Amino acid sequence: MKKKIKIALVLTIGFFGFNSVNGQFQNAPIKIVDYHVHIMSPELISNLTFQGFDFQRSQFQIIKDKKEYSNISEISNDNQNAKMVLISVGYAYKNMEGGFSKEEFVKRENNLLSELVKTDPEHLIGFYGINPLEDFAIKEIKRCDEDLKLDGLKLHLQSCNLDLKDSIHLTKLQKVIELVAKRKIPLLIHNNAWDKSFGKEYFKIFKKEILDKIDPLTIIFAHAGDGGGFYQFGYDFLNEFVLYFQQEKERSKHKIYFELSGVAKITKYPTSKTEEDFLKIMKKIGYDKFIFGSDYPVRDSPTYINEFFNLMPIEKDELKKIIERDLFVALKKESR
């Protein structure tokens, strides 16, 4: 009972931080730029349900009719009319009912993404989601880049269970990232952080086999490099980047950012690192390397701003800069 009261108190206090009606943060106007917003077709929602996925049980806060997860008006309203990086999630589909092939379904989700981005290209950017282990990955990246004119690529390495220690997996990942680097396609990566003890070694492999070998690239690490939450994996992974950025030539080669969705959580687990731990690393890396993301529909932008502000001991002016950090010009396809 005490835990429930504490959670309610935190959320109630949070609404004094961000006014979702007036778009105010600590009584100052704020323009949200959200780099992590998923869109899902009704068909994908049905398929996820058939797979046994339950939004409520998985603590998603945005529960809607399945057709509303691709309704751009609904999504925009939920996120305070923010500028948004929209992400397709076709890689989550499984052909369990004798329906579309995996490739065809991924293409449908990416086509939907393209149509949504066209409704408001000033405020929307499209990152197409693809499993790099699929045989059609290279072909679909080229189609999304050349035909759909989408802006960036999302790789969910945890969802596809990509293992950097597996030479076949690593080779496929290298081919995908080499292609996007040559084409200067911005990359959003969700690391495979299942093994909480593997963060340091994961970074070393990623640096040696990816960062050191590819052309300069803009890379955004979802969830600040962890898998959602902040555990030993993310702690070790980010600390390696502290050392990486201390070398000027490394800092200047790639444009690397860390997106903050899922880092601050009300529910704590015994293996979670503290907000103070995370803030120390943020300061060492530099606040300018961090950008905002809600992980919609896990959270919406106003809700997560409140949670982050009330849980993370960060100066409000610094958080406001992060929330408003706008990389859209650099990320858009026409800037390449």
Q: Could you characterize the architecture of this molecule?
A:
This protein is α/β, with parallel strands linked by helices and 336 residues long. The chain has a single domain (2-335), classed as TIM Barrel, CATH 3.20.20. The chain is 42% helix and 13% strand. The chain has 13 helices and 11 strands. It has helices at 2-14, 42-51, 72-78, 102-118, 137-146, 167-182, 199-211, 232-245, 248-253, 275-285, 301-311, 316-324, 328-331; strands spanning 18-19, 24-25, 28-29, 33-39, 83-88, 124-129, 152-156, 187-190, 218-221, 255-259, 290-291. It has an 8-stranded parallel sheet with strand order 4-5-6-7-8-9-10-11. Strands 1-2-3 form a 3-stranded antiparallel sheet. The radius of gyration is 19 Å and the shape is globular. The chain starts with a helix and ends in a 5-residue tail after the last helix.
